[in-house]
Amino acid sequence: MRNEMQEFYQNKYNENERMQRQPLEFFRCKEIISRYIDSDNMEIADIGGATGAFSFWLAQMGHNVHLLDYTPLHIEQAKEKGKELNAALSSYTLGDARQIPYSNDTFDIVLEMGPLYHLQNERDRIQCLSEARRTLKNGGTIICEAISRYANLFEGFRHNLIEDDRFVDILNENLESGNHSPGDTPYFTTAFFHTPEILVEELKQAGFCDISIIAVEGFGFSLDVDSVFSDPHKKKLLLKYIKETESNPDLIGISGHFMAVGKKIGDNL
Question: What is the CATH number of the domain that holds 81?
Answer without folding.
Answer: 3.40.50.150
